[in-house]
Structures are given as structure tokens and as C-alpha cells.
Design brief:
The protein is of the alpha+beta class. The chain is built from 7 helices and 14 strands. It folds into 2 domains: 139 residues, Fructose-1,6-Bisphosphatase, subunit A, domain 1 (Fructose-1,6-Bisphosphatase, Chain A, domain 1, 2-Layer Sandwich); 121 residues, D-Maltodextrin-Binding Protein, domain 2 (3-Layer(aba) Sandwich), CATH 3.40.190. It is an enzyme of class 3 (hydrolase).
Length: 284
């Protein structure tokens, strides 16, 4: 019978690896040419690839029997997230931030079993923010347990500070759904929420929700590697990840449409109110 997984040992391995990856990331920021992927706002650099290579090599050397899924080696239609223990990695989440030297990029190192995130490490080497989460063992920002901020009032849509992203699709029905929903949420004759923030990194947005710095984060179009690590960090902080479309209470990690909500007694009502404010549906 295979040995039970030591999730805390895996977390420690990923923290050490994140620090090593962070050294590489900070050494290259502002010095790396970028190229387009799907279009002129979907960007990648040779540093993304170099960091993924480093992470993949360390994982293969330490956990040769586990699977690996990374953004830069993903092959659409071929790479599938299976039930085996899998490292689900975005070497640099917030690549556009990295290119612009805006200090909100991170390495996002997730670990799933049966497609469920169980260990997550998200490290922003510019601001020295190490977010960690292990199933059943809580989540932390550096040495502080999450959430850092207790709600001063019950979470409501009107009082919410919401993480959003424009993403890389800038035309078509998904873009229209986002823009129309942003407007409905912000407008005086809509929900008139307190505000929006776009950190430019799904992982950083989710960790900000886990910490209680954001009340929620809504996005469609990102992938399992963008969210896997943040997901367990969020849930171990008492937060909740539901789908980015109405009624999707239990999304898969590769659902590609997400709504992260902080720990709060009002979160279920918030989720229903948010979904009720959407204009159209996301389809990725
Ligand atoms: C980014 C995501 C972000 C999304 C961007 C991009 P990347 O990941 O974290 O949420 O809005 O379009 O996909 O490409 O920087 O690893």
C-alpha cells in the first residue's frame, strides 16, 4: 500500500522551491523580452519558461511518481488534470505585471489529489508575501494565520470590494458579459458596490480574498494553474470558491469560471446577489 501523503512536507518543499523561483523572477524583471500568445495582451516571457523548467526539475527529482501540470508546458486538448497527485503550477502568475515591473506577480505552486487542491504556496518575491495553505492545517501569510482582517460588518454586495480582471479575451460574448456585469455592479442604479481592484494575478486576487483584504474575486478565462494554490489557501481561511456562473456551487478546479468569497456569515447571500447581478453568462 502506498505511503499516506505528507502534505506538510509537500508544503515545506514548495515553500523552499518558491523562494528559489522568486530569486530567478526578481533577477529578470524588467530585463526580459515578451512575446504574444493568443493576442497582444496574452503575454509570456522566457523567464516564465525558465521558472517552470526549474520547478518541473525539482518536482521530478523529489516526487518522481507524481504528475505535473504547468502553464507553459500545457498542450490544449492533450494535457488533462487527472486524479493522481499532481503539482499544478503557474511559474509566474501576473506575467503582464512582471513585464511592467508592477510588483504583483507571483509564483503559484498548487498540489491536487483527485483533482482537489490540498496544498498551495503563492509567493510574491517583490513584496516578500508567502501565502501557504494545507488541507486541515490552515493557511498563512508569512507567519500570520488567515484571515488577517475580520469583517467589521456583515458582507453585502453593496459593501463589497471586489477583485476583477479584464483577462485576455477583449471582444465577443465573454468580454461583453464582463463589461456589462462590471457596469451593473458599479452603477448607481445597479448594486453600487464599494469598488473594484484588479491585481493582474488570479493567485494574488484569491489570496487577497483569503486574507480578508478583498471581499470577493470574480473571473472567467483563467485556468487550473492560476487558481489551484490560491483555492486551498482560501478554503483553509474559511473562504469559499464557487463558480463564476449562477448556480455553480461546486466548481471543478479547471472550471475556468470562478467566484472566490471571503469567510463571512453573509457569504451565501452575497453569492446569490452577485450571481443575480450578472448580465449574461461566461462560457470558456
Ligand atoms: C493571468 C491571470 C489573470 C488573468 C490574466 C492572466 P498569467 O495569468 O492570473 O487572472 O486575468 O489574463 O491569465 O498569464 O499572468 O499567468
Amino acid at each position: 500500500m502506498s505511503q499516506p501523503l505528507d502534505l506538510l512536507e509537500i508544503k515545506d518543499f514548495l515553500v523552499k522551491l518558491a523562494l528559489e523561483a522568486g530569486e530567478l523572477i526578481t533577477s529578470k524583471t524588467g530585463k526580459t523580452e515578451f512575446v504574444d500568445k493568443a493576442n497582444s495582451v496574452d503575454l509570456v516571457t522566457e523567464t516564465d519558461a525558465a521558472v517552470e523548467k526549474l520547478v518541473a526539475e525539482r518536482v521530478a527529482a523529489t516526487y518522481p511518481d507524481f504528475e505535473f501540470m504547468g502553464e507553459e508546458s500545457y498542450v490544449p486538448g492533450e494535457t488533462k488534470l487527472g486524479e493522481k497527485p499532481t503539482f499544478v503550477v503557474d511559474p509566474i502568475d501576473g506575467t503582464t505585471n512582471f513585464i511592467h515591473s508592477f510588483p504583483f506577480s507571483c509564483t503559484s505552486l498548487g498540489f491536487t489529489v483527485n483533482r482537489e487542491p490540498v496544498v498551495g504556496v503563492v509567493y510574491n518575491p517583490f513584496l516578500k508575501l508567502m501565502y501557504t495553505g494545507v488541507k486541515g492545517h490552515g493557511s498563512f501569510l508569512n507567519d500570520e494565520r488567515l484571515p488577517l482582517r475580520k469583517s467589521v460588518s456583515k458582507l453585502t454586495l453593496q459593501n463589497a470590494l471586489i477583485g476583477i480582471e479584464w483577462g485576455t479575451q477583449r471582444s465577443g460574448p465573454n468580454y461583453k458579459c464582463k463589461v456589462d456585469t462590471f457596469n451593473k455592479l458599479a452603477a448607481e442604479d445597479g448594486a453600487m458596490v464599494h469598488g473594484f481592484r484588479s491585481l493582474g494575478s488570479a493567485a494574488m486576487n484569491i489570496c487577497a480574498v483569503a486574507a480578508g483584504m478583498l471581499d470577493a474575486y470574480w473571473e472567467g478565462g483563467c485556468y487550473a494553474w492560476d487558481v489551484a494554490a490560491g483555492w486551498i489557501i482560501l478554503s483553509e481561511a474559511g473562504g469559499r470558491m464557487v463558480g463564476g456562473n449562477p448556480g455553480l456551487w461546486n466548481p471543478a478546479v479547471d472550471e475556468r469560471v470562478y467566484l472566490a468569497v471571503k469567510a463571512d456569515e453573509g457569504s451565501e447571500q452575497f453569492i446569490n446577489d452577485f450571481w443575480g447581478s450578472m448580465v449574461g453568462k461566461l462560457d470558456y
